[in-house]
Each structure stands twice: as structure tokens, then as C-alpha cells.
């Protein structure tokens, strides 16, 4: 079923005559529009894509599933006209996306019943089609190549920022449009910071280095983490590396369609807890991945979402020891009926780069 038809089915269930789609990723998902300003009004019989003068050419080229409307006085004003024209009486809005002042504005402007909706399109986006999966695979492929490249670049004496810049320019040269989040390069004690974005710190011999990075490629994101050692690292760091790797592998071996996010999370969490490091693993095991780098489904201890074939999730357990260092290993996985496929091919055995000159 086409995306708009699947959405219309949900509108029926929610007893809505139309949905005002203002989240740009959702706009892209429904229409293919890749620009940075536009909205969609979906009714049971029509779909309108509303944008401004700057995007006339692009919209006419990219948007085939909706009527293109160029507004003169503002998107909301144009939507108000369409609502009147099509005699819409109940309109859904994307509650997660709209801020309070936008809401107050349309409340004044629109003369109809406005109902907040909860992530309707985000729920559709969870399950990828084959075209989306093919693009995510390509995004992961260049991500793997970037990791291979960076292993030849990292040595004692370079800064985390130099590593991030090298990684980012490599990815852009391979076709990435941007990074999917600020590149994390966390070395030494900083590797105990789960989101230690690259800093001016110089990488030293004896450091564990965690690199967590991803890119946008043709609109879709990748997200991968590897941790490796520069020179010899302590026994404790090696121990937690092996525990995190086993936890990560347990998710790959044990996940399949039909499990809840909570059950997937437990595959990693229970093992890390059993090994005595539960309190040092304070984030979710994973998250959905697609047009957004963090999207539904959640793969956390609270997630009751059931895994469905062709969802794409991350598998990223970690252990972080303050003042000592940390380890995280992350792959992107496609959910299959009887298991998962990991899309990344970068090695996971502990890599120890030979000591360089500091
Ligand atoms: N890779 C960063 C994160 O998933 O939070
Ligand atoms: Mn991630």
C-alpha cells in the first residue's frame, strides 16, 4: 500500500478528516520533497503540498503524490483556505512537532476542531520498504569504509577533532550530505562519556578510543560505534570490552520479529548486569534509524513496541567507568522474521593500534 493510503487508514481510525503534516521528515516521507520549507495537508481524497516561491522548481520536480500549492501569505493561511474549500471539520496536527505559539496561531486562524495526534507518520516510518533499506545499506557501506580509513589515520599525537574532521571529509567525499549527529571521538578517560563529542584532547598511548559517527546519505542515516585501543590498555578495559562485545552479539543472536523493544534491550542489559557492570550501562540498547538518526521504535527497558520485519534498529550497549574509560560497540540491524541482519561489516574484535609517537 502506498504511504498516503496507509496514513489515510490511520486517519479513519483516529476519526480525522485531514492531517496537517508540518514535520519536514514526515513531509519528505510522504511526498519526496527534500527542501527545507513545506507542509502537507492530507485529506481522505486529496493531498496538498504547500511551499513558497523558493521551491517552485524543486517541488514540481520532486512531488508527484500531492498537488503543489505555492503560498503567498503563509503556509497556515493557505491551509486555512484548503480546509474551507474541502469543508474539513476535524483536523489532526502533529503534537510532537508543533510548538505552543504555532498551536495558538492555528487555533485562532482555523475554524474547525483541532486534534493533536501522536506520531502517526513516525509509526509508519518504523517499517522500511526495500528502497529505504537499500539506501540505508549504502549509508552503512560508506560508514564502514570511513572506519577502515580512520584506523590508518589515528595514532598517538593526533587530536580527537582531527580524527573527526578526517572522518567527516572522507564521508562527504563518498557522497554523504552531512553527518547524522556531532561525531563522537572520546579517548582515554573521555571514553567514559557516552556522548563525548570530539575535543582538542590529544590521543595518547594507552587510550581506549570510542568513535561513534554516522552520516546522511540520500536522506537516510547511518550510526556506528567502534572502540579500539591505541597501544596497550589496562586489563580492566580489556575485560569490559569483551563484556560489551558479548552483550552486543547477544542482541544480534537473540533478536527477531515479535519481540518487544524491552526484550531486545534485556538481551544486552541482563548480561552486563550479570557481569557486575549494570550500573555503568545507563542508556538504551538501541533506537530506530531511518530518515532520522533517532526514531521509533525505542529499544529500551521501557519499550513495549513489538519488533516487525524490516524495522531498522541499532544495537549499542556500552560500559562507562568514570575516571577510567569506556567501551561501546554499535551496529545497525534489519529485523527479520527469524533473526536480524547486521548491516555493518567493520571488525569487532578488539583492535590494538601499535604505539605511535606521542
Ligand atoms: N550514536 C549516537 C546515539 O545513538 O546516541
Ligand atoms: Mn546510535
From TrEMBL:
It comes from the Bacteria. Residues 135-337 form the Peptidase M24 domain. Keywords: Aminopeptidase, Hydrolase, Metal-binding, Protease. InterPro entries: Creatin/AminoP/Spt16_N (IPR029149), Creatinase/aminopeptidase-like (IPR036005), Creatinase_N (IPR000587), Pept_M24 (IPR000994), Peptidase_M24B (IPR050659), Peptidase_M24B_aminopep-P_CS (IPR001131). GO terms for molecular function: aminopeptidase activity. Residues 3-127 form the Creatinase N-terminal domain. The keyword rRNA-binding does not apply. The keyword Hydrolase applies. It holds the Pfam family Creatinase_N. Belongs to the peptidase M24B family. This is Aminopeptidase P family protein. It comes from Facklamia lactis. The lineage of its organism: Bacteria, Bacillati, Bacillota, Bacilli, Lactobacillales.
Amino acid at each position: 500500500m502506498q504511504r498516503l493510503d496507509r496514513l489515510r487508514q490511520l486517519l479513519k481510525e483516529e476519526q480525522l478528516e485531514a492531517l496537517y503534516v508540518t514535520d519536514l521528515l514526515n513531509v519528505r516521507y510522504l511526498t519526496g520533497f527534500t527542501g527545507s520549507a513545506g507542509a502537507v495537508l492530507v485529506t481522505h481524497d486529496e493531498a496538498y503540498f504547500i511551499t513558497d516561491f523558493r521551491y517552485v522548481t524543486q517541488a514540481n520536480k520532486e512531488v508527484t503524490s500531492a498537488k503543489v500549492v505555492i503560498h503567498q501569505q503563509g503556509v497556515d493561511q493557505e491551509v486555512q483556505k484548503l480546509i474551507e474549500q474541502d469543508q474539513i471539520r476535524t483536523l489532526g496536527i502533529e503534537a510532537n512537532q508543533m510548538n505552543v505559539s504555532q498551536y495558538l496561531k492555528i487555533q485562532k486562524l482555523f475554524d474547525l476542531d483541532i486534534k493533536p495526534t501522536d506520531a502517526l507518520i513516525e509509526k509508519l516510518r518504523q517499517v522500511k520498504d526495500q528502497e529505504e533499506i537499500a539506501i540505508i545499506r549504502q549509508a552503512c557501506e560508506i560508514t564502514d569504509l570511513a572506519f577502515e580509513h580512520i584506523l590508518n589515520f589515528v595514532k598517538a599525537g593526533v587530536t580527537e577533532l582531527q580524527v573527526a574532521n578526517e572522518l567527516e571529509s572522507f564521508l562527504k567525499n563518498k557522497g554523504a550530505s552531512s553527518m547524522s549527529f556531532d561525531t563522537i571521538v572520546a579517548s582515554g578517560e573521555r571514553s567514559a562519556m557516552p556522548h563525548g563529542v570530539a575535543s582538542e584532547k590529544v590521543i595518547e598511548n594507552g587510550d581506549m578510543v570510542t568513535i561513534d559517527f554516522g552520516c546522511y546519505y540520500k536522506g537516510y542515516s547511518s550510526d556506528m560505534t567502534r572502540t579500539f585501543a591505541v597501544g596497550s590498555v589496562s586489563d580492566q578495559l580489556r575485560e569490559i570490552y569483551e563484556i560489551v562485545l558479548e552483550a552486543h552479539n547477544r542482541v544480534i543472536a537473540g533478536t527477531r520479529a515479535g519481540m518487544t523493544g524491552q526484550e531486545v534491550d534485556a538481551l544486552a542489559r541482563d548480561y552486563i548486569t550479570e557481569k557486575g557492570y549494570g550500573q555503568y550501562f545507563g542508556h538504551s540498547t538501541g533506537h530506530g534509524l531511518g530518515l532520522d538518526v533517532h526514531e521509533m521504535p525505542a529499544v529500551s527497558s521501557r519499550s513495549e513496541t513489538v519488533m516487525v520485519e524490516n524495522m531498522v534498529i541499532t544495537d549499542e550497549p556500552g560500559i562507562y567507568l568514570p575516571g577510567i574509560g569506556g567501551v561501546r560497540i554499535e551496529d545497525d540491524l534489519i529485523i527479520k522474521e527469524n533473526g536480524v541482519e547486521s548491516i555493518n561489516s567493520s571488525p569487532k574484535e578488539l583492535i590494538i593500534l601499535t604505539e605511535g609517537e606521542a
